[in-house]
Write a structure and sequence with these properties.
TIM Barrel, single chain, globular, 2 domains, 478 residues, eight-stranded parallel sheet, Immunoglobulin-like
C-alpha cells in the first residue's frame, strides 16, 4: 500500500482490494455473512458439543472458517426469569454478552449488538419495557434518562475492555414501538410516534456520544419484521425525525411473512431508492432442514418454500444461497441467519425442555455439523454486481481534496471539460452516500462542491462527464 499526502487528504492506493483502477473503473461491494450465536454459551453449559466429523470444535471458529464475518448477539436488561431455570445461570445479559463478544472478536469477526430493551424476548407482538423502568413509563423525560444511561453505560462497560460492537441495533423487531407498559402491549397494536421517535433518538444520542468518547465508529441499525411492512415504518421514522442511522434491518421468514424472493428483492430496491444513504440487511432469517424433532419442545419452523421441498440439509443450503443472491442483486449488504446453533439439550426454556429450533440449525440431532447443509451458504461463490465503464481515467490531470464541508477539485491547465459534471462519493462497501450533477463552474481551474459532513474514512470519489469517467480514486477523507 502506497500513501501520498496532500494537505489533509491522504490518497490510498490498494492492490486487489475492493476496487481496481487501470484503464477501466470497476467496483464491487463487500457483504456481511452473519450468524446469531446468542444461544451458544447456554447450549455449551447445557452439555452441547458441536462436532465436525466427530471431533469437538469451537462453534465461533467453525462459523468463521465457513465464511461468517459478523456475529449478532442479543442483550436483555435483567433476564431474572433464568433464575428459576436449570442451574439458575443467566444468559444474554451484559456479562454473558461480554463473553460472546470476546469469542467473536478473537476469531476476527465483527459484532452486531441487539438491544432488546426488555427483560425477555422483544418481537412484533411483545415490546414490554424492563421491570426496572415500569414506574417511569408514563414520564417520558425520566424514561429518556433511563434509556440513555442504560445504553451508554452498557457500551462504556464494553469499551473499557475494547469490546465495542461495530453495529448496534436499537430494539428488536420494533413494529409495535419500544418500551411499552404491559398494559399498553396487551391492548393490541398502538403506536405513539411522538413518544416512539423521542425514545429512538435518545438511544441514538447515547450511541453517538459513545462514538465520540471512545473514538470508535458504530453503525446504528433499526429493525422491523416483515418485508411488506418495512417501507411504511421507514417512512414514519423519517417523517418523525429519526434519520441518524446507517442500516435498515429486516426479519424475513417465509413461514410468517409469505413473501416471495422477487417481492423481497423489490422491497430492498425500493428502500435503496428511497434512502440511498442507508444499507439494507436481512437481520433474521432461517429455513428448516427437516420436519423431525429431536426433543419434546415443539418446532417453531416447519413450512417449506415453493420449490425447496422436501425439507433437507441440501434444500436449506440452496434456499439460503438463493435468498442471499436476491439480496445482493437488489443492493442489500448482508444476511444474518438466526440461531443456527440452537441445538437440543436437556435444559429448559420458558416454553419447554430442549430446543424449539433444532430442525432449523446447521447441525443434526447429535450436534454434528451437516457438511452439505445450510452452513455452506456463506462460502458460496456469489455473483456480485460490477459496474464497469470502459473509459480512460484522467486522474493525473485532476486533484481532489476536502476542506471542511467542501470537496475541492483542481484540474490542470489545458484540461478541458464540457457539459455537465457528476460527482459521486461511495463507501468502500459500495454504498453511494453523495451524488450531485450540475454544470461546470470553474474558477481558476478550481471547482467547489458542498458535501454533507461524513465521518473519517476511506471513500471512492468518481467524477463523470456524460458517459466518461474522468476520475476515480480511493481517498482518505480526514
Amino acid at each position: 500500500m502506497k500513501t501520498l499526502y496532500s494537505g489533509r487528504l491522504c490518497i490510498v492506493v490498494f492492490i486487489y482490494t475492493y476496487f481496481t483502477f487501470s484503464s477501466t473503473l470497476s467496483f464491487s461491494q463487500s457483504f456481511y455473512f452473519g450468524a446469531d450465536l446468542s444461544y451458544v454459551n447456554e447450549m455449551e453449559d447445557c452439555g452441547a458439543v458441536y462436532k465436525v466429523n466427530g471431533n469437538a470444535t469451537d462453534p465461533y471458529a467453525l462459523f468463521k472458517n465457513n465464511g461468517a464475518n459478523l456475529i449478532r448477539l442479543r442483550l436483555w436488561h435483567t433476564p431474572s426469569w433464568y433464575d428459576a431455570l436449570n442451574q439458575g445461570q443467566r444468559y444474554s445479559d451484559l456479562q454473558d454478552v461480554r463473553l460472546s463478544i470476546i469469542r467473536a472478536k478473537s476469531e476476527g469477526m465483527q459484532v452486531l449488538l441487539d438491544f432488546h430493551l426488555s427483560d425477555t424476548w422483544a418481537d412484533p407482538t411483545h415490546q414490554v419495557a424492563p421491570v426496572a423502568w415500569a414506574s417511569v413509563l408514563g414520564n417520558l423525560e425520566i424514561l429518556q434518562d433511563s434509556l440513555y444511561n442504560y445504553i451508554y453505560s452498557a457500551l462504556a462497560n464494553l469499551a473499557a475492555d475494547d469490546l465495542l460492537p461495530e453495529i448496534v441495533q436499537i430494539g428488536n423487531e420494533t413494529n409495535k414501538g419500544i418500551l411499552l407498559s404491559q398494559e399498553t402491549n396487551d391492548a393490541g397494536w398502538t403506536l405513539d410516534w411522538q413518544r416512539n421517535s423521542t425514545l429512538f433518538n435518545t438511544a441514538i444520542t447515547a450511541i453517538r456520544d459513545i462514538e465520540v468518547a471512545f473514538n470508535h465508529e458504530i453503525k446504528i441499525a433499526l429493525h422491523i419484521a416483515n418485508p411488506n411492512d418495512v417501507g411504511w415504518y421507514m417512512q414514519q421514522f423519517h417523517d418523525h425525525g429519526v434519520t441518524d442511522f446507517e442500516i435498515i434491518g429486516i426479519s424475513y421468514y417465509w413461514q410468517y411473512h409469505s413473501v416471495l424472493f422477487s417481492s423481497l428483492g423489490n422491497t430492498i430496491t425500493s428502500l435503496k431508492n428511497s434512502y440511498p444513504d442507508k444499507a439494507v440487511m436481512i437481520f433474521e432469517t432461517a429455513y428448516p432442514w427437516t420436519t423431525g424433532n429431536a426433543d419434546a419442545a415443539n418446532n417453531i419452523l416447519y413450512t417449506s418454500y415453493p420449490g425447496y421441498s422436501p425439507l433437507s440439509p441440501e434444500h436449506q443450503k440452496q434456499w439460503m444461497i438463493d435468498l442471499t443472491q436476491t439480496v445482493i442483486d437488489h443492493g442489500g449488504t448482508g444476511v444474518i441467519y438466526w440461531e443456527p446453533a440452537w441445538v437440543s439439550t436437556g435444559c429448559s426454556t420458558l416454553y419447554g425442555v430442549g430446543s424449539h429450533w433444532d430442525n432449523a440449525t446447521f447441525f443434526d440431532f447429535d450436534d454434528e455439523l451437516q457438511i452439505d447443509g445450510g452452513i455452506g451458504w456463506m462460502s458460496h461463490s456469489y455473483n456480485f454486481p460490477t459496474s464497469v465503464k470502459e473509459q480512460p481515467l484522467y486522474t493525473n490531470q485532476m486533484e481532489i481534496y476536502k476542506s471542511g464541508d467542501e470537496i475541492i477539485i483542481r484540474k490542470q491547465d489545458g484540461f478541458n471539460l464540457n457539459g455537465r459534471m457528476e460527482i459521486n462519493v461511495y463507501t468502500v462497501d459500495g454504498k453511494k452516500i453523495f451524488s450531485q450533477t450540475e454544470s461546470h463552474n470553474w474558477e481558476n481551474n478550481i471547482y467547489t462542491v458542498f458535501i454533507p459532513s461524513i465521518s473519517t474514512g476511506i471513500y471512492l470519489v468518481t467524477i463523470l462527464t456524460g458517459e466518461e469517467v474522468i476520475s476515480g480514486r480511493l481517498y482518505y477523507l480526514n
